[in-house]
Specification:
The complex is a heterotrimer of chains A (697), B (295) and C (189).
Chain A (H helix, E strand, L loop, with lengths): L16 H6 L14 E7 L5 E7 L9 E6 L21 E2 L5 E7 L2 H10 L1 E6 L18 E2 L3 E2 L2 E3 L2 H6 L3 E9 L11 E7 L2 E6 L4 H12 L6 E4 L15 H13 L3 E4 L2 H7 L6 E9 L5 E13 L20 E11 L12 H19 L3 H7 L17 H12 L12 E2 L2 E13 L6 E6 L5 E4 L9 H13 L6 E4 L16 H22 L9 E6 L1 H5 L7 E13 L5 E11 L6 H20 L30 E6 L23 H13 L5 E2 L3 H7 L1
Helix pairs in contact in A: 4-5, 7-14, 10-11, 13-14
Chain B lengths: L1 E3 L4 H10 L4 E3 L5 H6 L7 E4 L9 E3 L3 E5 L4 H7 L5 H8 L4 H6 L2 H7 L7 H7 L2 E6 L2 E6 L4 E3 L2 E2 L6 E8 L5 E6 L10 E8 L4 E7 L9 H13 L2 H4 L5 H14 L10 H32 L1
Helix pairs in contact in B: 3-4, 8-10, 10-11
Chain C lengths: L2 E5 L2 E5 L8 H8 L18 E4 L2 E4 L12 E3 L4 H8 L9 H8 L15 H9 L8 H14 L5 H7 L11 H17 L1
Parallel strand pairs in C: 1-5
Antiparallel strand pairs in C: 1-2, 3-4, 3-5
Helix pairs in contact in C: 4-7, 5-7
Classes of the chains: A alpha+beta (697), B alpha+beta (295), C alpha+beta (189).
């Protein structure tokens, strides 16, 4: 057998790119179906209450309107255990913007007109939507997102903090943030008897399939979910969202195919968002900057529908040596839209707070912020006492500092000037845990020398289809173009969700396993695939299902340079650099773009993206892309990315850590720290508005 | 809904007379958003795209007659030398796609306080040519904006053209926002020096219920320039004068707090923009004067 | 109402068009051209960018009735248009790059190799495509830029693409792709 050069690690071009550049790639709302009808949501105009009446007479006057579905007349869904998809089941309104009715019509226009003509009467109840750090009703959840305990205590924080020579005590705030993937949530559903086909935009169609089967009480085998191309998600499509349940429900009710493409300005209320956080960080250190006491206390909110607790304090448990540690989460259950995952939930807002506080500590100690972090490098993971499987934070910091020219800067704040502009630079550390979930895969060798691999991965833009093909080709020992990988369909071998930066590891592992096995079988057959082919199945229920004796995280260092206009208060980013250590990078081309994309979203979080819950209406005021400012290309400067290749044997056969989220972690802190260096002013609330800067200067 | 496609201006006026509630649509960049978002559902849409003359402009000796539908892109490409303030403002409108479709007529028709053209129009001292089957009239820009998103048009009238004085001096436009592109103004300011009449005109956007002029600031500055003989001696404007001008501009605004910015920030930013744009225009004026003298 | 116009060089007709309907809706739902994407419906994101009589516009903000008798080019027509202009699609691709995209296409309607416009090929080669939802609009805008300006500066590129939002890439690879297409265009000329 000849040995082919490995293709993992190569910058292979995206396999489905051709379909995407020609417009041939079909997304959830792109599938033409005979007899297709359209749905449009009616959303609650009160933040809390009960529906007392629905008048659809006006709406139904148009013969093109097929139905107005409400809790009173829609086929009743079974309980699938997820309140987000328990649509049209109850007259209760839990938040403004909740979908209370759905108009279905022959055309989109008729559906929209009908939705506008539906009159809903409410018994409105007073609502409570304002989060403050000292409000009544804050409680300690049983656990926070990702299954972490709400509180952890090590040593005696209070005593150690009181005894510390140098202390920092600051409160950091992050407003609600919206995922806004470019593709709004959409689903097209059609029933054939008891069999349901759904074209859906999601980050994992295996779960969509099982959820729909549970909701409609049909066999999973009868539910087909197609999600071959998904226009981004960033967490907001991580679990089934209301649109898919509604589309299937409506299709059942009208006996026709139904498409529900949520308009952009409705998705913030019903598909999740990053919950706001108010985080108090206290650091106690000696004069040399060695941290003795660290407290990170997060106050956040969830909805009355679901309990989702942004685990913002969690990264403070493992980042730095901290003999005395207190990390807590308190949450208020408010009449607000349900929060959910948004790129690096927990780490992203949490590291904004911790890494801003580290910068404050560096100032207080008169230490270089890079050096301060190096001094607090822990020998083992502080919270669990487990060794790190690999940890190259210090290398990232040093390499980043070298590449960025960090040590050339004048460390004093507010001294870098260019006319009316103040120039400053900042650094922050970055981290993201290694997740891996059990998945299944099949590999098939044809007698024609071609291979097919099947795994229900989802490519939300990450490059999953491409990197899985690379993994398969290497494991099979064949050229890429002989391997076809099928993903994005609920009937494929079960794959875990495209979330938690876990996809490549979770799907790649069973693919690797199946392909390695298949290669052996082909070899056993004398290198000759018999007629009818060879077929193997593999899963990682054992390998990925259990715990690990190692603490596994990716790390990184973010550097940023900003200019602050002293006259208008406008902050503009001049350059950013990220250096990451995330195991083996399997495809530098797709990886680089993932890192930069994450950093860009972090730039948005720092400067342009912010949302506000109107206390009166109880809904977001920034609901569309005109008011919620995603960074445009003119805002994004030169962003440079490098990585340190890690040889970590404790991960998976590919040696990879996830890369989809770490790019956003620490980016906002690096920028806020740069603003401090430029101006001498600490901005502890994001986004950094010109108003805030001017008031402070 | 009816969709009317008049082929000529006369047909358009007749249609508007017959359907006074008809909503004119040209570039569509405002009207279509309202329809897409179901904010309004007009009985009649009156498409003005087929009326060629609305896309034309004429540069006369003293004035530029700008068809209501001339796109911002065309203004930037063709009219920078004669309408520098408006061209600069046009450049900050949204995105290339929007600038390719939108025109000043639409900005005037919507009369949103955030419309980017308004400060430049106010500073230029233009007149808006509106017409109906009853006839044509010229509305001075100062009388055009009558309330929040309301203008001085009668229900049967359409905007045909804008008559702008050719720039007789430097003009500037400035806008503050959170992003570098695609941003609705937190607030905006336009200034035009008019050496021929020794006057200064200004325009403020997004800082009051309607686009407004800062008249007290204009009068103060004109008086100060006159008194110091600055128009003739071309000296640098004393900082105290610039400061006072900026304060008066801030004071003219009547902004609100909203998600885009606080009222106090808007006032501050207006002062900043007033001082900066005054500096730029005056530098340019002095430069022009000097080269004129040398020539 | 009935609307007749030319799409990607072919005359098309749509009946029973609602008067408030956008060009985007007509393209996607009535003409079977779902390449142009609906992502904001307010002209903020550029995902629906098409050329209307050569000019890039947000098709979500053009009323269907306004395109009567006019010419529209969508992402689906970019390759044909480039061929008419005499552009060459596959220049300068390295072997490694080629390997990736020659793997069997996944979509049934995928175009055949060699049928791409230079800007499409450059987007593939530069890795400018991620989730792909902003891609069609960006391609149309970038293609128009290169048609009008064969050697754009970075500022020109940023300016031309300032109306197209991308949530995945951070734009760097997109700028690279436009630079690449411009460079290849130079080689050919």
């Amino acid at each position: 057998m000849t040995t082919l050069p490995r293709v993992t690690g190569e910058a292979v071009a995206r396999i489905e790119a051709r379909d995407k550049v020609t417009g041939a790639a079909s997304y959830a709302a792109d599938h033409p179906l005979d007899g297709l009808t359209h749905a449009w949501p009616v959303t609650a105009t009160v933040a809390r209450g009960d529906i007392t009446a629905v008048d659809d007479s006006e709406a139904l006057r148009d013969p093109a309107v097929l139905a107005v579905l409400t809790h009173a007349n829609a086929p009743r869904l079974a309980d699938a255990g997820d309140p987000m998809v328990a649509v049209l089941r109850s007259p209760h309104v839990a938040h403004h913007g909740q979908i209370v009715a759905l108009a279905v019509a022959e055309t989109l226009e008729a559906a929209r007109a009908a939705a506008g003509a539906v009159r809903v009467t409410y018994d409105e109840q007073p609502h409570d939507v304002v989060l403050t750090a000292d409000r009544p009703g804050l409680y300690t959840p049983d656990e926070v997102n990702a299954g972490h305990p709400a509180d952890r205590r090590r040593g005696d924080f209070d005593a150690a903090y009181a005894a510390s020579e140098i202390t920092v005590d600051a409160v950091y705030e992050v407003t609600p943030l919206h995922n806004h993937p470019m593709e709004p949530h959409a689903a097209t559903a059609v029933w054939d008897g008891d069999a349901l086909t759904v074209f859906d935009s999601n980050q994992g169609s295996t779960v969509v399939r099982s959820t729909l089967a549970a909701l409609f009480e049909v066999d999973e085998a009868d539910v087909r979910v197609v999600s071959e191309h998904v226009g981004g998600g960033f967490g907001s499509k991580g679990t089934p969202r209301p649109h898919v349940a509604l589309a299937a429900l409506a299709a059942k009710a009208v006996g026709r195919p139904v498409r529900l493409a949520l308009p952009r300005n409705r998705i913030a209320a019903v598909t999740g968002h990053r919950a706001p956080t108010i985080q108090r960080v206290r650091l106690g250190a000696d004069a040399d900057g060695h941290i003795d006491a660290l407290a990170h206390e997060t106050v956040t909110q969830t909805s009355t529908l679901t309990e989702f607790v942004e685990q913002a304090s969690v990264s403070s448990r493992m980042m730095y040596a901290s003999p005395h540690s207190l990390t807590t989460h308190r949450v208020a259950r408010l009449d607000v839209p349900s929060p959910s995952w948004m790129r690096a939930p927990g780490e992203c807002p949490g590291m904004f707070a911790l890494e801003s506080a580290m910068d404050e500590l560096a100032s207080a100690c008169g230490l270089d912020p890079v050096e301060l972090r190096i001094r607090n490098e822990p020998p083992v993971e502080p919270d669990s006492g487990r060794p790190f499987s690999s940890r190259h934070l210090v290398d990232c910091l040093r390499e980043g500092a070298r590449r960025f020219g960090w040590h050339d800067r004048d460390p004093r704040p507010a001294v870098g000037r260019d006319g009316p502009l103040l120039i400053g630079s900042g650094v922050a550390a970055s981290t993201y845990p290694v997740w891996v979930f059990p998945s299944h895969a099949e590999a098939y060798a044809g007698s024609d020398g071609r291979y097919e691999v099947r795994v229900n991965a989802t490519d939300i833009g990450t490059g999953a289809r491409t990197v899985l093909t690379q993994i398969a080709a290497d494991a099979l020992g064949v050229p890429l173009d002989l391997v076809r990988v099928s993903i994005g369909r609920g009937d494929l071998p079960a794959g875990s969700v495209a979330g938690g930066s876990s996809g490549t590891a979770s799907w790649g592992w069973p693919v690797h396993k199946a392909c390695t096995d298949l290669r052996q079988r082909v070899s056993d057959a004398g290198g000759h695939v018999p007629d009818g082919g060879l077929f193997v199945r593999a899963d990682t229920e054992q390998e990925a299902g259990g715990g690990t004796e190692y603490s596994r995280h990716a790390f990184g260092a973010q550097f940023a340079e900003v200019q602050v206009d002293t006259v208008t208060g406008e902050v503009r980013v001049r350059r950013m650099l990220g250096v990451f250590a995330a195991g083996h990078i399997l495809n530098p081309r797709t990886a680089r773009s993932q890192f930069i994309g994450g950093m860009t979203m972090g730039l948005g979080m720092a400067l342009t993206e912010g949302s506000f819950l109107d206390p009166e209406f109880g809904d977001f005021t920034e609901r569309d892309l005109a008011s919620y400012h995603v960074a445009a290309c003119a805002d994004v400067p030169e962003i440079d990315v490098h990585w340190i290749d890690e040889d970590d044997p404790h991960l998976n056969p590919m040696g990879s850590k996830g890369i989809g989220e770490i790019g956003i972690v620490g980016a906002a802190a690096a920028l806020a720290n740069a603003v401090h260096h430029a101006t001498g002013m600490r901005v502890r609330r994001l986004p950094i508005h010109p108003d805030t800067i001017l008031l402070g200067l | 809904m009816d969709f009317l496609r008049p082929a000529s201006w006369e047909e358009a006026l007749a249609a508007k007379a017959e359907h006074p509630t008809a909503v004119p649509i040209a570039g569509g960049t405002d009207v279509m958003v309202e329809i897409n978002f179901d904010h309004r559902r007009p009985d009649v849409l009156l498409d003005l795209n087929r009326i060629g003359e609305l896309h034309d402009w004429e540069v006369g000796e003293d004035t530029v007659r700008l068809g209501a539908s001339v796109s911002y892109t065309r203004i930037i490409e063709n009219l920078r030398s004669v309408l520098p303030g408006l061209a600069t403002a046009s450049h900050t409108v949204a995105s290339p796609q929007i600038r390719n479709r939108g025109g000043v007529g639409g900005n005037l028709g919507c009369a949103s306080p955030a419309g980017d053209a308004h400060p430049a129009l106010l500073a230029s001292g233009c007149e808006v040519e509106v017409a109906s089957v009853r006839g044509t009239r010229m509305i001075p820009i100062d009388e055009f904006y009558v309330g929040v998103k309301r203008n001085a048009l009668a229900p049967d009238e359409l905007i045909r053209a804008i008559h702008l004085p050719r720039a007789d001096g430097p003009q500037q436009f400035s806008k503050v926002g959170t992003r570098n592109a695609m941003v609705i103004a937190v607030c905006a300011f336009g200034i035009a020096l008019h050496p021929s009449t020794r006057t200064v005109r200004t325009g403020i956007g997004s800082a009051a219920p309607t686009p407004i002029r800062a008249k007290a600031a204009e009068e103060f500055l004109a008086a100060a320039l006159e008194e110091g003989g600055f128009w003739d001696n071309g000296k640098i404007i004393p900082p105290a004068v610039a400061r006072q001008f900026a304060e008066l501009v801030s004071g003219a605004a009547n902004p609100i707090d909203d998600v885009r910015g606080s009222a106090s920030y808007r006032r501050h930013a207006l002062g900043v923009m007033a001082r900066r744009t005054l500096g730029w225009t005056w530098d340019e004026y002095r430069g022009n004067e000097r080269s004129a003298r040398c020539a | 109402m009935r609307v007749t116009f030319t799409v990607n060089g072919r005359e098309q007709e749509a009946d029973d068009v609602w008067e408030g309907e956008s060009l985007l809706y007509v393209l996607r739902e009535r003409m079977g051209l779902p390449g142009s994407k609906n992502a904001c419906e307010q002209g903020e994101c550029g995902s629906c960018t098409v050329r209307l009589d050569d000019v890039p516009v947000c098709s979500c903000l053009v009323a269907a009735g306004q395109v009567q008798g006019r010419e529209v080019v969508t992402v689906e027509g970019l390759a044909d248009q480039a061929r008419e202009r005499g552009g060459r699609a596959t220049d300068g691709t390295t072997l490694d790059q080629a390997k990736g995209w020659q793997a069997k296409p996944h979509g049934a309607q995928a175009a055949q190799p060699g049928q791409l416009a230079p800007i499409q090929q450059a987007f593939i080669d530069a890795g400018a495509v991620q989730c792909g939802f902003c891609t069609p609009g960006l391609l149309v805008a970038a293609d128009e830029l290169l048609e009008r300006n064969s050697s754009p500066t970075d500022a020109d590129i940023r300016e031309a693409l300032s109306g197209n939002l991308c949530r995945c890439t951070g734009y760097e690879k997109i700028l690279d792709a436009v630079r690449l297409a411009a460079a290849r265009q130079d080689e050919v000329v």
